[in-house]
Amino acid sequence: MKEMREQIQKWLEEHREEGTVLLQRLVQSPSIAKNEAKAQAIIIEALSKMNVQVDVWEPDGKTLQENPYFYSPRDQFTGSPNVVGVLRGIGGGRSIILNGHIDVVPEGDHDQWSDDPYSGAIRDGKMYGRGVTDMKGGLVSYLLAIKAIQQLGIKLKGDVIFQSVIEEESGGAGTLSALLKGYRADAALITEPTNMRIFPKQQGSMWFRIFVKGRSAHGGTRYEGVSAVEKAMTVINDIRNLETKRNQRIDDPLYKNTPIPIPINIGVVSGGTWPSSVPDLVKIEGRMGVAPNEKIADAQNEMRQCLQQLTEVDSWFKEHPPILEWFGGQWLPGSIDLEHEWMNTLVYQYREAIGEEPVIEASPWGTDGGLITEVGKIPTIVFGPGVTEVAHYPDEYIKLDKMFQAAEIIACTLIQWCGVNDRK
Amino acid sequence: MKEMREQIQKWLEEHREEGTVLLQRLVQSPSIAKNEAKAQAIIIEALSKMNVQVDVWEPDGKTLQENPYFYSPRDQFTGSPNVVGVLRGIGGGRSIILNGHIDVVPEGDHDQWSDDPYSGAIRDGKMYGRGVTDMKGGLVSYLLAIKAIQQLGIKLKGDVIFQSVIEEESGGAGTLSALLKGYRADAALITEPTNMRIFPKQQGSMWFRIFVKGRSAHGGTRYEGVSAVEKAMTVINDIRNLETKRNQRIDDPLYKNTPIPIPINIGVVSGGTWPSSVPDLVKIEGRMGVAPNEKIADAQNEMRQCLQQLTEVDSWFKEHPPILEWFGGQWLPGSIDLEHEWMNTLVYQYREAIGEEPVIEASPWGTDGGLITEVGKIPTIVFGPGVTEVAHYPDEYIKLDKMFQAAEIIACTLIQWCGVNDRK
Prior knowledge:
Structural class of chain A: alpha+beta
CATH architecture of the largest domain in chain A: 3-Layer(aba) Sandwich
Order of helices and strands of chain A: HHHEHEEEEHEHEEEHEEHHEEHEHEEH
Largest interface: A-B, 48 and 48 residues
CATH superfamily of the largest domain in chain A: Zn peptidases
CATH class of the largest domain in chain A: Alpha Beta
Oligomer: homodimer
Distance between the termini of chain A: 12 Å
Largest sheet of chain A: 9 strands, mixed
Shape of chain A: elongated
CATH topology of the largest domain in chain A: Aminopeptidase
């Protein structure tokens, strides 16, 4: 193993520029939703230079819509392909899925970026651009690991299933499609931007919308009306209490450094139409976190009960109960036992490569890991070189050193997990 | 006087249909802002059948804009005339302005109206339509009073200055223009819809806008951000305390039946853009009441200080103080001494006509009365036959009996205030 690690390190040094250029080309292709094809073509080109079986298909909207786990703003995916590359093992070993998403969130206000948002500019060892950290750097670390193993003539026993999927940012339709197509393995890795932390548990999340009613009146006689803003403030305070209650239950040591493990975020408040009128309708939208071991339906029930209690203590709410809806994407939570063999493997390889214990935490956001865990029944870990804090923000960047470190850890992890024949 | 009253009552009975038809024609002309000309033409036609000097002019935007009391969403008034009709007295008496506005607020959602919003339909002694109560019924009660006096050969000593102005709903530019043109009198009446109550004091009001800042973060790690919604709730609670403090000061017996004499209404709250993000900006808009004897600048100062105190107790507000703006229309407060001769005259005539004491209160909303009081230095009373609760609402209506009662009271008031020669 030590010899293979040294060979991998040497290979990565020799191919540093190649890896950097590949990442740059990927970042310079703005792959927001519906525009993934060009970036996927770069992935396909990279895979074609390796000895992998390439599978490219456009997820089928009709089939997906019948699946209870399907969420997307769109119902068809023409022109938006998934790409899978399978490095067939020689047999008798454990398989692994290396999952990553090609789609990126919109770049937002260009004025907030120092460079063009898709520049791929490199300064002080960092590459800048939307998607470089979330998560094209993670995709490239997979490709480097696979190519290194291949070119070094290392023959893995188990299959390696590389996946570059669409729609992670929009609800997981790409990964769901890959699962429905039949891709399974003994373990899965997702190189979302974790700052090189290892997340054996991931928070789930979903979006809620609440309508709070009031009664209109002239602002000069506001006491004749009922302010939907005042009522909404009561609802928001109640939600804050619910959040406190839910988080007091969390005693998982993985969350010991997290101030609020499963937050409930109020993201949008909008109500009233006229300064001189008492507002009669307020809309609240937000994101509710789901604990790694929690069922989404149970979390939704708690929110429903929280609002229900308001109707029992306030006669206005009794007559005009708030209306609760769930909309948009849902990210399933996920978790793997800390003593799981897959966890031990990755942690060991991290330690060997870095020379320190990894930071092990629960992730504060959802990923496709929940789908892979719940639908695929595959133990999944999230671990990647990207910078958590800058994902989705202007001047998103990655530290290139970390990408190559991750590639080394992944390559050695593949060797340990999938197994190799004894080599001369 | 008694004989003249009986003649006036008889005249009004004989001209009931004429008055009803005039009101109907006025209501059926939708005179929302910029569309006043047709309704004003009906007013001019009615005036031309009386022996009054008619003055019609389009307020001059350029001149008005230089005036500190000018507020309007528009800066020119082409096609939107004011109409004044002066019934010249024979001399030696007190003059009076009979002020009313021709403009109406938009009808809103047609689905909420039982009839067409401008139907002028009559059922059970009520006429329906946008503007019938606020305040075309009030304008018609003036016209009936003037016509009755004229046709009965009653010669008033003082001048009667009838005014049908634009822009009352938009900030007072019509009344301001009439004042700048030079129209003055010893007293003024405004037949806004008071349910036949007499308002010697009127609340002023103005619109405020407050921007509250936060700091964005991902909803899954909301503790890394600062929620502008939470901060806005603090601001709103503080404003509520300010309202309580301001109202505790009010000991005017005229307000004894008013739950909140000078309310601060939160009308619009809008913040955040994404359910999964901590909101970093919230906008609050509302209406602040001004006490009859209060200066607008002093009320604005109190609001400013209220927000200033927040910066002293909360370090976030210290670094990111809320931004306060005043925008849109301002309605000056107004008040007249309860013992003023003008007040005594109207109260006396009310009592004589109705046989009961009038209800005397302070008005909960602003009118052009503040402008007439402050700019014109003219003692002003607000009193009219319209139904307060339905102004600005769907299915606005007026009780026709009240309009004719008001006409009788106004005619007799003119006789007492302006004076008459002894008649045979």
